[in-house]
Fold each of these.
Amino acid sequence: MQIKSIETFAVEIPLKPERRMITALGVHNTSPYVLVRIRTDDGHEGVGEATVMPRWSGETVWGTKALIDKIFTPVLLGCDPHDLQTIENRMERACAHNWFAKAALEMACWDIQGRAANKPVYELLGGAKRPLSVRCRFSMGAYEPERAQKRAAELVAEGFDYIKVKVGGEAAKDIERVRLVREVIGPDRKLMVDANCGWDADTAIYCINKLEDCNLAVVEQPTPDGDYAALARVRKETKPPVMADDICFNLIHAKELIRNECCDIISLYPGKNGGIRKSKEICDYAAAHGVACGIGSNLEWDVATAAMMHLVIGCENIQVEKYPGDILGPDYHQFRIAKNPVSIVGPVTTITDRPGLGIDIDWDLVEKHRYNG
């Protein structure tokens, strides 16, 4: 089996008004991402998704499409989609970083493998380690007080019992927002915060300790990308478990986090880590060193969401029972580009045992929403 063709599709889908995201990184109102379709010489087909955000990983929809079309496609044509090591090596030699672009191609290869073998991807990862339904937390934007209170009440009514609040801005406003959400959701539901690198170590320590009475379940990425010492200091000088996310894209980053005792949990997902296999590699390394993993999000569509779910189901150390993840991306958007979308009902996301990633794209709908920005 050999890769015969690779096509890219830049598409834009707006978010539902009530789910538009505000974080320390800015405002997210629409999602311009890239879909990938790989075909093989024996008639198999696989799909992938690059969930790119320039302010987060540095990747853009225009750059990703050009990179795949002009740089990666020439070196991948003729490769066997089962030979992920060769595919990864060729991409690494052709271009540094660009995790989400590489992940889109890699997940399309997993999709082909599963369809060819008539098995879901989680079976290719070693079999299901948990049920096909996963309960998720909800990530709430860094809203003004009145909106934060209203949104928290809505989430409780929708059945969410684990809520993440975005922080990372002005300390007083962040503290006020978290306190208001705690008041609304009550003492029994889980509450965590995510600063998206927005605080320095001093501000993080101050805010987390001031919020001690809010009983934070987890503090996610409180300090800047690359500053392992700051993250380690926050972990040492505060009580809640610390989750690393924006600072960990590859195995080297994970090793540094663990070596420097920076965190209790590492947030993974295929897009950020450059593919399903690389996420699993980090997960297995963390497990061997007694560090838990969780699953993060970049507000994915159905293809990347399915890839995340297969990873979670196939990896025991992604401890979603203790640290629920964000696997709700498609439900943030105004419409779905899958003919058979991932099931999302309130906080519960479910995939099927269909072969591959289990997602069939509505290519006519994709054509109607091509991104021309």
Amino acid sequence: MNSLVISTSSFDTGNNPAIQRLLQQGFQVITNPHKRKLTEDEIIELLSGGATGLIAGIEPLTGRVFQSAPNLKVISRCGAGLDSVDLAAAKNHGIQVLNTPEAPAQAVAELTMGYILSLLRQISTIDRAVRNGEWPRTQGRLLAAQTVGVIGLGHIGRRVARLCQAFEATVIAHDPFATQDGVTLVPLEQLLATADIVTLHTPYSTDTHHLLDAKAFAAMKPEVIVINAARGGLVDENALAGALKSGKVSAAALDVFEQEPYHGALLEFSNITLTSHVGSLARESRQRMEIEAAENLLQGLIKAGLIKNG
């Protein structure tokens, strides 16, 4: 019997037309029993039954994984990022790799806007104070008065730029692969020196590892706000802790971390918002992402000749 693995921590198979069609074709669906991000060994174990297709989360999909799964023909990422997939190794093993770049974009962009507005007006800090019996008269800042620096003008970054412009903020961006697209493009050094808010929306790679490090934080404006809803490895978390402690960074928000779940030093700071990699977890976006991921898998299996079209 053909089988497919769904490695995401959750997935609604019952309301997914492509999954139902694969079940009718005789496929067995194997889901993630751990309900969290899988390790390399755990995804190897899930694929060990001879799965031909994988709807992937953000677990490491390495050459070792592909070597251990000789029947695997199609990987469909339920999400946009492909940094967890060794694309060269996948190609060498004849595995198609697909993703859903548009489906989560609005959800991540809206979460980013939530961070920006909350940090500017210190909503979480004031909420905690009121619950402790205080009544602070805290003065915040207007988004309309800020310069927002968007690093990465892909599906998500472009949306964040437009949303900030709707609030009448000044928006600048750095992306070596982008065109103007209604946003002023600047070198990274200029963005870091100019922006009141720096928000990351760029893919992770060896070239962008710790893109925001101690040197980058030192180059930023005093009292800058830093946001990362892209990938954990983009930010040197220890350097960010130092910048928060010194006051160079006045506030920050992170949805992604180098190690998840996160248990590091940033937990000690009250002026940082930490969320549990929930960027795409808006109901409507998640549903679209799952449907697109399953449809991509179905079409990939048809292309591979593993099931018939029609």
Amino acid sequence: MPLRQTNRRMRLRRTGIVPSDARVRHYDELEEETQVAVRELAGRPRTAPETDDLDDGDVVKFTDYYQVRAR
């Protein structure tokens, strides 16, 4: 998974509302290593290094909708 050259980390938060301006990424469109990170982060209070595939505010459609938060 291409990591960004920042110290930012991302977390996934389940969301029932998809903002109209959010970029929605489907799980199967992501790089394989990013898919692994999504599986590990979905529904858990964990963080992982930020990747090139996902940006802060993006929404990933996996088993549910998850919003990416990066700090």
